[in-house]
Amino acid sequence: MREAGRILAITHDELEKALKPGISTWEINRLGEEIIRSYGCVPSFKNYRGYPASICISVNDEVVHGIPSKKRILKEGDIVSLDAGVIYKGYHSDAARTHGVGRISPEASRLIQVTKESFFEGIKYAKTGNHLNDISSAIQAYAEKFGYGVVRDLVGHGIGSHLHEDPEVPNFATKKRGLKLQPGMTLAVEPMINAGRYNVRWLDDDWTVITEDGSLSAHYENTILITEDGPEILSKA
Questions:
Q1: Please, how many CA atoms are within 13 Å of residue 198, restricted to the half-sphere of its CB?
Q2: Inter-residue contact 12 to 85 (CB < 8 Å)
């Protein structure tokens, strides 16, 4: 899983370099799959439950699971969430990043930064003996300080020999404390934060999730390992 995460981190770094006005989301997906396969790995997402691409590419008000298209051309000021996974020797990594295309608004930049920061606020509590809800509560509390909406309809998850495993990892506080964290657990922690309300809806393609109020959305995710000494981020170079 460390190697799967390392290769995924490289993939994200290369895709960030390729983002520029005029590129299509189809081309980003093609490049991402090419990089993943060049390391002898398989994209986790391709054909997963029927998803038709290797990289989920979500633009502006799209929260997650945007489908790449030759017709979707990025332009100056867009924000783009890239979500990808890698299978290395039967084990998965999963990570997401949101980037600006060219010069973006201060509001968009702040949303991206706060979403990333909310992840790190959450994993401060990803320690042996704590509970899942400690992570979830910290993510929500941080994002909501800025007036943002924390998506409720989608959550993080366990990960390992399967892309999605138990337990679910919400980005918001729940009534139950959740699983007690133990060394060796691997989790995909992934705040999905909207500039407006937290409500979302699905498009007719049955994949793309958008904000209900049309506000911007950002996504930041890493695969982490729970250790005796705190969390280890597996999908970060």
A1: 16
A2: no
pLDDT in tens, the chain (237 residues): 999 999 999 999 999 999 999 999 999 999 999 999 999 999 999 999 999 999 999 999 999 999 999 999 999 999 999 999 999 999 999 999 999 999 999 999 999 999 999 999 999 999 999 999 999 999 999 999 999 999 999 999 999 999 999 999 999 999 999 999 999 999 999 999 999 999 999 999 999 999 999 999 999 999 999 999 999 999 997
The model's pTM = 0.97
Tell me the CA distances in angstroms from 101 to 17, 67, 76, 81, 211, one per residue in order.
Answer: 10, 18, 5, 11, 20
First to last CA, the chain: 13
φ/ψ of 195, rounded to 5, equals -70, -25
What span, in angstroms and rounded, lies between the C-alpha atoms of 207 and 52?
A: 10
